[in-house]
């Protein structure tokens, strides 16, 4: 056995080998040590190899999926080795023959298909990156749904592509693999190296034609050699990992350059598109806008959100669907109610195509197509539907034949595994019904046969019995033997055995019944498995149309979800056009607004006009104001509004007119990258450099506090030059927030620069944030007041205020030397504050006494008002006495 194990293991040195032995998957030697530690299970030993104990651990085969998930999440690959014959079959070759085993599947992060290993609301992408001469291509597929795409991807665009798709595993070869390894692993993907032959474009073309049953790929589009290499590597890897059982993939779709909004990794992180800065889904834009009710709809939402479109026609189609459902609440609610009953058809279809699915996957397709028919009937009965909903209704029709077959063949709630049986409905197969009847009612059949034989023989003492030697037999007392052995009964009853007191017989019918009863259980399961294979073939034959229906259901779910969101949150349809307009009226941040609502507060909406095509171009707003006033929120909300509009959603604003944005860049917040030796300021400069080097005229850029991580004059200089470059070089729409008030003077020399500030109000030394963005410039940053609100010790606040006053006075006087300020404000003048003086008298005054006697909860509104007048009169009288004195 160990010889067989070692031979199989030698073919999969980089994977843990799950070696099937009866009801367990067992692991040996180094695999056992690694798995026991990763899974926190017992490590034991079994026999010796080369004089040393063989380490061993194991997991039950029926619970293997949970262990696989843990191992995959910890970065392992697992080769699943199954028994290909029974021990009885092996013994036919000799008593010491080892059961045949082989690997049937290689489980890797990018090749998962089981529901228990996947997140129902997220894609699980396997990607490949190929280079042919100077041409690069990025291909990706989700084996669990069949999605298959390819796009040109120059080397600088690899990072944004990884950030957009978040693949679980990426394939590459040769020097290119080593070149991108660090970048891929930073993106959270596993890098898998393949031989160069896997990326050969000529061989790839053959693989793809074989997979899709075509003679040429022209019907799918025009692909470059790099495209073919990347797609071919995916197919080759799937063939390797699935041991020749390729999943069902959709025809490849080539994504043209410029069809999606370019968003780099830093911007996705800063805008918290799919994950908040803390790393979780809560607090992200995706969490705030997700009202989908199906897994496929949720995956489509995530895909649209991470890849907004620049196609005006496509976006108009999406907005038309949302608008129609916003206007018809009854239809929207009815659609969403039906969609809640739709299982995940995409993933069920994929598992069945891999011959890895079960009866529940067939039931999922049945139930999904049933609801598709209901939804189609509902939509088709309506007039004046937008084109998108009409096309969806068409894709959901015509599935009656396959639905009828699955409905008649399957029970209402089938078991998970086909091998468990019991999933075929009664009445579907006469042979199966008979086998089940025999299996479940064998004793009743025997009893009925006994009564029939007793009546025929005229022997009331006749019994049908069973033992392990004879099986089923007929037994009569010896006194009746002569009658049974004579004509005409001897033609029916065949003598088998004579004992001292009885004679035993059998009949042809009894022998046949015995055989059928003994084999009924196995026969019933065998017949059910035959039905299962027949149903699989029927589904496979109709797979293209089922897949189209699944995609239509996802599209409908997303449109209805966005409509529900727009209606509930008072969002409006944006006007998109091919221009450089950017006018937002009453814009709001969707995530912050929902958070404030939970706290019982309201969000202050603000306008933004970055249009660059009017008589007074203002493509850049310079935003000043204190921290905590809402500058970062204002910056982010406008970027999110553009992104939501171009994914096909309504937007959180009273009105929005947006010229198509082809790039969104964000530099907001502070972060370091210590692993690569980058300080916070270095990260800021790297991200700023990427923006200035890439942003084009149709880009939208938001920058917050550029230059704050270095000395004041260095930072001011960098911010100044950056602002000028955005204005004169990039000539893009931008929001630029800063504390460098000196920059506001640039509005006099830069025609496209518009000063704006976040309004605040001072009251008794404190600052009150109004969160309103107005035209103009802030004259101060209120940092000391914010420090006070944050809880700095009073001594620190007072000291800071004194230093600030001195610095401002020094600046008004033409600027003195810092040394002079240090001399005037020596370090030791910040002495610890003295203990507060005791009050002159411990006796309370009349006002204090009056206040202490008041019970606020017992006052009516009128009594409270009267009390205020009373206290005010007492205060005035007290002040008069003080003045007179």
From TrEMBL:
SMART domains: MUTSac (SM00534), MUTSd (SM00533). InterPro entries: DNA_mismatch_repair_MutS, DNA_mismatch_repair_MutS-lik_N, DNA_mismatch_repair_MutS/MSH, DNA_mismatch_repair_MutS_C, DNA_mismatch_repair_MutS_clamp, DNA_mismatch_repair_MutS_core, DNA_mismatch_repair_MutS_N, DNA_mismatch_repair_MutS_sf. The keyword Acyltransferase does not apply. Belongs to the DNA mismatch repair MutS family. Residues 832-844 have a biased composition (Low complexity). ATP binds at residues 625-632. This is DNA mismatch repair protein MutS. This protein is involved in the repair of mismatches in DNA. It is possible that it carries out the mismatch recognition step. This protein has a weak ATPase activity. PANTHER family: DNA MISMATCH REPAIR PROTEIN MSH1, MITOCHONDRIAL (PTHR11361:SF34), DNA MISMATCH REPAIR PROTEIN MUTS FAMILY MEMBER (PTHR11361). Residues 699-715 form the DNA mismatch repair proteins mutS family domain. Residues 832-853 are annotated as: Disordered. NCBIfam families: mutS1 (TIGR01070), PRK05399.1 (NF003810). GO terms for molecular function: ATP binding; ATP-dependent DNA damage sensor activity; damaged DNA binding; mismatched DNA binding. Gene3D superfamilies: 1.10.1420.10, 6.10.140.430, DNA repair protein MutS, domain I (3.40.1170.10), MutS, connector domain (3.30.420.110), P-loop containing nucleotide triphosphate hydrolases (3.40.50.300). One of its GO terms (cellular component) is cytosol. One of its GO terms (biological process) is mismatch repair. Keywords: ATP-binding, DNA damage, DNA repair, DNA-binding, Nucleotide-binding.
């Amino acid at each position: 056995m160990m010889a067989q194990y070692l031979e199989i293991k030698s073919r999969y040195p980089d994977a843990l080998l799950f070696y099937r032995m009866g009801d367990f998957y067992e692991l040996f030697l180094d695999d056992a040590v690694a798995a026991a530690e990763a899974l926190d299970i017992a490590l034991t030993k079994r026999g010796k190899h080369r004089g040393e104990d063989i380490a061993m651990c194991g997991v039950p085969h029926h619970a293997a999926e949970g262990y696989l998930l843990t191992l995959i999440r910890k970065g392992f690959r697992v080769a699943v080795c199954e028994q290909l014959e029974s021990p009885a079959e092996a013994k036919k070759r000799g008593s010491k023959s080892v059961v045949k085993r082989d690997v049937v599947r290689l489980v890797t992060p990018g090749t998962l298909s089981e529901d228990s290993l996947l997140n129902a609301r997220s894609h699980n992408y396997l990607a490949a990156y190929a280079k042919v001469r100077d041409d690069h291509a990025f291909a990706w597929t989700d084996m669990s749904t069949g999605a298959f795409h390819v796009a040109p991807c120059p080397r600088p665009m690899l990072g944004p592509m990884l950030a957009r798709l978040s693949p679980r595993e990426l394939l590459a070869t040769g020097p290119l693999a080593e070149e991108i390894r660090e970048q891929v692993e930073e993106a959270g993907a596993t890098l898998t190296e393949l031989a160069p032959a896997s990326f050969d474009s000529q061989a790839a073309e053959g693989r793809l034609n074989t997979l899709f049953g075509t003679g040429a790929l022209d019907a799918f589009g025009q692909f470059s050699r790099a495209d073919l290499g990347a797609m071919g590597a995916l197919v080759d890897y799937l063939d390797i990992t699935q041991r020749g059982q390729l999943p069902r993939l959709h025809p490849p779709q080539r994504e043209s350059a410029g069809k999606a909004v370019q968003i780099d990794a830093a911007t996705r992180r800063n805008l918290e598109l799919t994950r908040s800065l803390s790393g979780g889904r809560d607090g992200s834009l995706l969490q705030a806008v997700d009202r989908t009710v199906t897994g496929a709809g949720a995956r489509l939402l995530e895909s649209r959100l991470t890849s907004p479109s620049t196609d005006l026609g496509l976006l108009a189609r999406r907005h038309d669907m949302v608008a129609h459902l916003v206007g018809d609440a009854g239809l929207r609610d009815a659609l969403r109610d039906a969609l809640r009953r739709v299982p995940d058809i995409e993933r069920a279809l994929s598992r069945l195509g891999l011959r890895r699915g079960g009866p529940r996957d067939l039931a999922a397709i049945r139930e999904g197509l049933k609801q598709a028919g209901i939804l189609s009937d509902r939509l088709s009965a309506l007039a004046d539907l937008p084109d998108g909903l009409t096309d969806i209704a068409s894709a959901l029709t015509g599935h009656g034949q396959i639905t009828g077959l699955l409905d008649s063949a399957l029970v209402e709630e089938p078991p998970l595994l086909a091998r468990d049986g019991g999933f075929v409905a009664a009445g579907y197969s006469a042979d199966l019904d008979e086998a089940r009847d025999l299996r479940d009612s064998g004793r009743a059949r025997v009893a009925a046969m006994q009564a029939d034989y007793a009546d025929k023989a005229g022997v009331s003492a006749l019994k049908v019995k069973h033992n392990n030697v004879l099986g089923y037999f007929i037994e009569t007392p010896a006194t009746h033997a002569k009658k049974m052995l004579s004509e005409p009964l001897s033609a029916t009853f065949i003598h088998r055995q004579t004992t001292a007191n009885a004679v035993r017989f059998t009949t042809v019918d009894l022998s046949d019944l015995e055989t059928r009863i003994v084999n009924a259980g196995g026969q019933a399961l065998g017949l059910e498995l035959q039905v299962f294979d027949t149903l699989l073939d029927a589904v496979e034959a109709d797979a293209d149309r089922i897949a189209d229906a699944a995609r239509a259901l996802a599209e409908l779910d997303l449109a209805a979800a966005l409509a529900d969101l727009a209606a509930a949150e008072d969002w409006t349809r944006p006007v998109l056009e091919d221009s450089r307009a950017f006018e937002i009226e009453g814009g709001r941040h969707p995530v912050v607004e929902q958070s404030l609502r939970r706290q019982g507060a309201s969000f202050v909406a603000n306008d933004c006009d970055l249009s660059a095509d009017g008589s007074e171009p203002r493509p850049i707003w310079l935003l000043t104001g204190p921290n905590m006033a809402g500058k970062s929120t204002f910056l982010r909300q406008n970027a999110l509004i553009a992104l939501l509009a171009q994914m096909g959603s309504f937007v959180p604003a009273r009105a929005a007119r947006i010229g198509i944005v082809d790039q969104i860049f964000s530099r907001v917040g502070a972060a370091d990258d210590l692993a690569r030796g980058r300080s916070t300021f270095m990260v800021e400069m790297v991200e700023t450099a990427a923006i200035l080097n890439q942003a084009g005229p149709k880009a939208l850029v938001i920058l917050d506090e550029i230059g704050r991580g270095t000395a004041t004059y260095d930072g001011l200089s960098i911010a100044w030059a950056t602002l000028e470059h955005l204005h004169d070089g990039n000539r893009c729409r931008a929001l630029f927030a800063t504390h460098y008030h000196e920059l506001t003077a640039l509005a006099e020399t830069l025609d496209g620069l518009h000063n704006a500030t976040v309004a605040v109000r001072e009251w008794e030394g404190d600052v009150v944030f109004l969160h309103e963005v107005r035209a103009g410039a802030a004259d101060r940053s209120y940092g000391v007041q914010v420090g006070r609100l944050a809880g700095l010790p009073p001594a620190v606040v007072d000291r800071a205020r004194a230093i600030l006053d001195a610095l401002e006075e020094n600046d008004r006087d033409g600027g003195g030397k810092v040394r002079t300020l240090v001399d005037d404000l020596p370090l030791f003048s910040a002495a610890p504050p003295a203990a507060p003086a005791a009050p002159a008298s411990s006796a309370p005054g009349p006002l204090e006494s009056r206040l202490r006697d008041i019970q606020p909860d017992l006052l009516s509104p009128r009594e409270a008002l009267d009390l205020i007048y009373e206290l005010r009169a007492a205060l005035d009288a007290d002040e008069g006495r003080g003045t007179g004195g």
